[in-house]
UniProtKB/TrEMBL annotation:
Ca(2+) binds at residue 571. The gene is EDEM1. It comes from Canis lupus dingo (dingo). One of its GO terms (molecular function) is mannosyl-oligosaccharide 1,2-alpha-mannosidase activity. This is alpha-1,2-Mannosidase. GO terms for cellular component: aggresome; endoplasmic reticulum membrane; endoplasmic reticulum quality control compartment. Residues 599-610 have a biased composition (Basic and acidic residues).
Amino acid sequence: MQWRALVLGLVLLRLGLHGVLWLVFGLGPSMGFYQRFPLSFGFQRLRAPAGPAPPALGPARRPGTPGGPSGPSWLQAPGPGAGAAGRGRPGPAVCGPAHWGYVLGSRGRGPDEYERRYSGAFPPQLRAQMRDLARGMFVFGYDNYMAHAFPQDELNPIHCRGRGPDRGDPSNLNINDVLGNYSLTLVDALDTLAVSVYSEFRGFEAVTLNWFVCPDKQHAFIIFVFLSSCLLLSFRVLGSLLSAHRIITDSKQPFGDMTIKDYDNELLHMAHDLAVRLLPAFENTKTGIPYPRVNLKTGVPPDSNNETCTAGAGSLLVEFGILSRLLGDSTFEWVARRAVKALWNLRSNDTGLLGNVVNIQTGRWVGKQSGLGAGLDSFYEYLLKSYILFGEKEDLEMFNAAYRSIQNYLRRGREACNEGEGDPPLYVNVNMFSGQLMNTWIDSLQAFFPGLQVLIGDVEDAICLHRYNWQLQAPDVLFYPLRPELVESTYLLYQATKNPFYLHVGMDILQSLEKYTKVKCGYATLHHVIDKSKEDRMESFFLSETCKYLYLLFDEENPVHKSGTKYMFTTEGHIVSVDKHLRESPWKEFFSEEGGQDPEGKSVHGPKSPEIKVINSSSNCNRVPDERRYSLPLKSIYMRQIDQMVGLI
């Protein structure tokens, strides 16, 4: 009987200790004896992925950074006593699991329910079930698009019909900025077919993609170089054509036999022709920053808008750079880099930040808000991804400087994600010149940023940012067009940590999409995320990104993960293999018209702005682009071979 008394005493002692913890700190568990969800979500102090050291990120915040008006502590910039980096570690953690359960969405249900849902293991059988559900989601949307909408651009899934450009109202930019009779949804989904439904990739062989070599079809449509809503024609079409071309011509064929009989680089020709038709956007701008819209047949309209968003003008470098290096033609990367450098030179001298809208003729900032969401997101993303692909150190230097400014002025809250006093971090929107708080608006595009932080090795901060506006405890934007950014960051965080928490999050997202957005012929945009009212539209990025990231999250054995090839995702989710071919350029241009310095430090004059002339092709829709349709006067003045890759991913 003594052992029974001893066991009973230990049980009572444990209950008493938990009771004291619960009453005093709000940290104790329920009456159960299961292991609680750790404070740090199960992550230790995570380090960057194996390989070369991550880029130096500089100090996290300057002491005394302006923080805007008075208010809650999470809005305040650090004071002079915040430590050398501006966000010192003030002491042990004060926010326990109960706090996290509240912060991350369990209000009204209690922390225990939250922890039971997200802290457990994720069995292989459940993972396989979610993988098949994600594949089925893609197949359902794709099959219905092909049955009811193709060759139109998008599917209206509620009424089971196609959607194309709004011919009756050319000013309807919400439609006409994206749609132009390209069979857009099919083109955007080409590499998703290879990644998730391997046998179906060949389906595009039978598809007639003649839109770019048949310019008469575009006589009425003005096409965005980049959309103010950050939907880039270059991202959706040019990037997909290049990705699909690389999959077809990959000698390793990691996704199975994706080769096509008698393939003669047709997709590369189409990508080339599209890029040529976009080149007029870079003409006749005093800054080198491109116009926001261009007609694929006639060029820039006479009354074109001179204002463009930073992301729109500065996020062409990946796709244009890949095309230049595949063709051995510097023109496309040249104009994209010139635009990036023009924007970079317009950043604030005081904060190092950029605004979100600029005048391409005057260089004056029309929108002075600096943040991580719409209008700026992919500008930062492509500085880093361009370096990963091409190895140009200047891209990394610009990204490092931009990241330091972001940490200095946009980040609020305590230094560490899961320890220390104060509120968890939050990134806000500030005035680019003063750093003063403008608002705490968070849109769905901002959800990409944790994924970008994973690529640079700042995984702990990415973990903490992987959620919505916890302070508001409500969505800032009620409209949800099936965007992929949260899924993307969830996928990348899982790849970095292998913590099953992210599989549970992905399952929640997948099941919510099935429950609230699935309709008769596809998946519909949510007009209102609270009342779940729907709009009759399925945009192309749902198949090209949202479905792809969900599938890859649960497909452990996918060639993307197991083939030994390093892949990077464009901002539209198109896969690009990271290899030496893209890091070896037989040409090197000096891009500053004011001149520069050669490797020995001697001053040299850069080339004049290229006279880019686009000549209309014939109306023969069955031929590939004529190489003589444009002039390429640029001359190589400097050559360099990149001998080794930098393994950032």
